[in-house]
Amino acid sequence: xxxxxxxxxxxxxxxxxxxxxxxxxxxxxxxxxxxxxxxxxxxxxxxxxxxxxxxxxxxxxxxxxxxxxxxxxxxxxxxxxxxxxxxxxxxxxxxxxxxxxxxxxxxxxxxxxxxxxxxxxxxxxxxxxxxxxxxxxxxxxxxxxxxxxxxxxxxxxxxxxxx
Length: 163
What we know:
The chain is α+β, with helices and mostly antiparallel strands. The protein has helices at 58-68, 143-155, 158-162; strands spanning 5-14, 17-26, 29-39, 42-53, 78-83, 89-94.
């Protein structure tokens, strides 16, 4: 086990022939995201999501989730991010004065680690609020950058390579 994958015994079937072998599979565990925020002059904490994920990079996952849900609008909104209660819970403490609209987190079923569309109650709920449009910039990349990009991405995806 590497922390993000583990080796398990599997049976492969080819016609009537059964072969036992080992295979590396990605680990998937739940992550609870808790939000600490100020409301009416007092600090509150609320569990806002449980998502499945391969352990690691939990701070980035929690930050990205809260950003796409328009709870966090900039890095300055976050006071601290820390794991709590073991490996599968992370707490994001917002700075005092950050306005929190928890109704934006309304789901009709559990949160998945997919793109974030699943479970939203309407198309309007997909629109992030308080964000500025990214200006259109004509993109140009050299051939060397384009040719090197797949290898650079693969180098950062060790678990994908293992499994």
